[in-house]
Design a protein that fits this description.
With 449 residues, this protein is an all-alpha fold. A two-stranded antiparallel ribbon has the order 1-2. Strand 1 and strand 2 form a beta hairpin. Helix 4 runs antiparallel to helix 6.
Length: 449
């Protein structure tokens, strides 16, 4: 069993890392795409091109958010492994379509379709995880798999930064810098290879390998029915989720955490180029520090959450949001001329404070609530609601950075982090209260315990 569990963890991690090669490409190449829009006469100047791309990012995030609900539900009914690979294949097609595009409608269609199909990746991955791993290891397992959207994102950005630079390769000579279209074609080919490997090695359940399935979390919203992988009907799947107050608080936390994450993931390369005057390759490599340092945070937070339980996850969430709010306040009140490289350090600290707690929301906590029956939907709802806030993030950053400057962006984000810390505190106190109430009930029922 352990050997196949390791295979599943490794392939899910590699598989979802592959998604980021066809997702971070837009962020990394955004300045070059904007310049080409102006050169082709599709936009009159750099600011209007940046605002168009910001709108396109926001539209893509909206499609991604809606897709989380739809694809999460579909994955619970159809199964996770099949949907995981299918979404990869479709994303490759969309990436190639974007690379060959010459008009705004083609760019828009390709990016929105790509975001829609990619929204099924993480929920389907969670569906597979719910059937392969015991609930007492959810935090650690999901922390390891979460390396896919952290180290995978970092690796994708670093690799694309290398492609965007002139390259000296031993035995070949010097290779010119790739343009953004060549970058898109290269990363699409990488994801295609990953899709084939995942199809070969990942199965829906241990039963497919002649093994038994571990039990679901006993506190899942379905009770004993949470052990059944296939739902009986749509309302039977959705109803217990949307009537659970703790689940709704987690959705609220997802709004703030996703808005913060999307702002940094999509716009850090642009900030480094515009405000700190780094070239595209340097900006791409420096932006890779955000997910790279976040990976350390995710591992530490995941292991700690298995040791501390769900109350511990709420505590870590609250602490992370509070630290992020303080760091963002520092960014909003600092001068780039005097602070300089300190911006990179503070943004890297925010990654450590934010990404560990963020990984709980659509990961271990979603598995806790969803069990085997609704793991994909729980993940899809938590992530989907959060990504609606991501729509606002992309619009806000594009327009505020162009018209009011980056300090205004960081000031707004500091307020978002502060409000999220308050919601996290409410969730933490609610979990503690429920636990104590449960202990008292147990003592009343079993006086000798």
């Amino acid at each position: 069993m352990l050997v196949w569990q390791i295979v599943v963890v490794v392939m899910l991690t590699i598989g979802y890392s592959g998604y980021y090669f066809c997702r971070s490409n837009f962020s990394v190449c955004l300045p070059q795409i904007g310049a080409e829009l102006v050169a082709l006469g599709l936009k009159p100047d750099a600011d209007s091109a940046k605002e168009f791309l910001g709108i396109l990012l926001s539209m893509g995030t909206l499609v991604y958010a809606v897709g989380k609900f739809v694809n999460g539900t579909v994955a619970d009914f159809l199964g996770g492994s099949r949907f995981f690979v299918l979404a990869m294949v479709m994303s490759v097609g969309c990436t190639f379509l974007f690379a060959f595009g010459q008009t705004l409608p083609v760019f828009t269609l390709a990016w929105l379709l790509n975001r829609g199909v990619q929204s099924g990746g993480w929920p389907s991955l969670m569906k597979v995880s719910a059937r392969w791993f015991a609930h007492r290891t959810y935090g650690t397992v999901v922390a390891v798999i979460s390396m896919s959207f952290l180290l995978g994102d970092a690796a994708a950005r670093a690799f694309m930064g290398w492609l965007l630079d002139e390259k000296a390769i031993w035995g070949i000579g010097t290779i010119r810098a790739f343009d953004w279209r060549e970058v898109f074609l290269t990363v699409g080919a990488i994801l295609a290879v990953v899709a084939v490997l995942t199809l070969i090695l990942v199965r829906e359940s241990p039963v497919k390998r002649g093994l038994s399935e571990p039990s679901a979390h006993p506190d899942n919203v379905y009770g004993e029915r949470g052990e059944q992988a296939r739902p009986d009907g749509l309302w039977e799947l959705v109803g217990p989720m949307i009537t659970n107050p703790f689940f709704l608080l987690v959705c609220g936390l997802s709004i703030g955490a996703t808005l913060l994450r999307e702002s940094f993931i999509n716009w850090t390369p642009t900030f480094y180029q515009e405000e700190l005057k780094y070239d595209p390759g340097q900006a791409a490599r420096l932006s890779s520090l955000f997910p790279l340092v976040g990976a350390v945070s995710v591992i530490l937070a995941g292991v700690a959450s298995d040791l501390l339980g769900r109350s511990g996850r709420a505590m870590i969430l609250t602490a992370g949001m509070t630290c992020s709010a303080l760091a963002l306040t520092l960014l909003a009140t600092s001068n780039p001329a005097s602070f300089g490289l300190g911006y990179v350090g503070v943004i890297t600290f925010i990654a450590f404070a934010l990404l560990g707690p963020y990984s709980f929301l659509g990961g271990a906590i979603a598995l806790d609530f969803g069990g085997k029956r609704g793991a994909a939907l729980a993940c899809g709802m938590i992530d989907g609601i959060g990504y609606f806030a991501g729509v606002l993030a992309d619009l806000m950053v594009a327009f505020l950075s162009s018209r009011l400057g980056w300090p205004a962006v960081f000031g707004i984000l500091a307020g978002v982090a502060g409000l999220s810390a308050v919601v996290g505190l409410c969730y933490w106190l609610g979990i503690i209260h429920r636990h104590r109430h449960g202990v008292r009930q147990s003592s009343a029922t079993h006086p000798t315990s």
